[in-house]
Amino acid sequence: MVELLPLLVSALILGLLGGGHCLGMCGGLMGALTLAIPPEQRSRRLRLLLAYNMGRILSYTLAGLFLGLAGWAVAGSPLVTALRVVAALLLIAMGLYLAGWWSGLTRIEALGRGLWRFIQPLTKRFMPVTSLPRALVLGGLWGWLPCGLVYSTLLWSASQGNALNSALLMLFFGLGTLPVLIATGLAAEQLSRFMRNRGIRIAGGFMVILFGLWTLPGPHQHWLMGH
């Protein structure tokens, strides 16, 4: 567990740094989910928003577990290195997208739209949101919204070669995205403006690019770990 701690912290930071992307991808959806709360339930808004997000994070964790099983199945083979290279390249692409330097990652997100077209109609069955279980299930469905940042992190977590570790990494990544989306649901405009600030986005994108470079297999990893 001690060896896993730096990776868990990295996943948490990656979720926090991706907050700007989360606002673009999920900010509108978060607002729509908030509006789906009936007036008589508005006093429970924070609890319902937490339930939405816990459902979403649970979806990330389950996806990490399932993809981690695939990573475990190929552990020790050259496919692990290939998986790690692809994950690193996706993370670099994510950093470029966050910084506003390249938007090619949106083409990757398009790959998941077929699944989302199947899942999206299911969300209507749980609206309006009148209870915490409904909010939890709705958030769980929301977790399958196509997202390049989630895809990048999923491949990175799967490349660890351990299903449980992959699930934990996705759990911590999801927790990292929580503050921005909760604040968005509560209409925290100051935080939203802060996360949309170009300087903040460039700094976050740059750090994600560095993280992607660190993820790439090679001798530079031993040098970085030694320092």
Which band does the percent of strand residues land in?
under 5%
| Overall average residue pLDDT | 80
What is the general shape? globular
In DSSP terms, counting alpha (H) and pi (I) runs of 4 or more, how many helices?
12
Low-pLDDT stretches are: none
Radius of gyration: 18 Å
| Cα separation of the termini | 21 Å
Order of helices and strands: HHHHHHHHHHHH
Helical coverage, percent range: over 70%
User: Quaternary status of these chains?
Assistant: single chain
The tally of beta strands, per DSSP, is 0
Commentary on this structure:
It holds the Pfam family DsbD_2. This is Sulfite exporter TauE/SafE family protein. This protein is mainly α and 227 residues long. Helix content is 78%, strand content 0%. It contains 12 helices and no strands. The radius of gyration is 18 Å and the shape is globular. 41% of the residues are buried.
What is the topological layout?
Elements lengths: L4 H13 L1 H17 L9 H29 L4 H22 L5 H5 L3 H11 L8 H11 L5 H11 L4 H23 L3 H8 L1 H18 L3 H8 L1
Keywords: Membrane, Transmembrane, Transmembrane helix
InterPro entries: UreH-like_TM_dom
Protein name: Sulfite exporter TauE/SafE family protein
List its traits.
227 residues
Question: In short, what is this structure?
Answer:
The chain has 227 residues and is an all-alpha fold. It contains twelve helices and no strands.
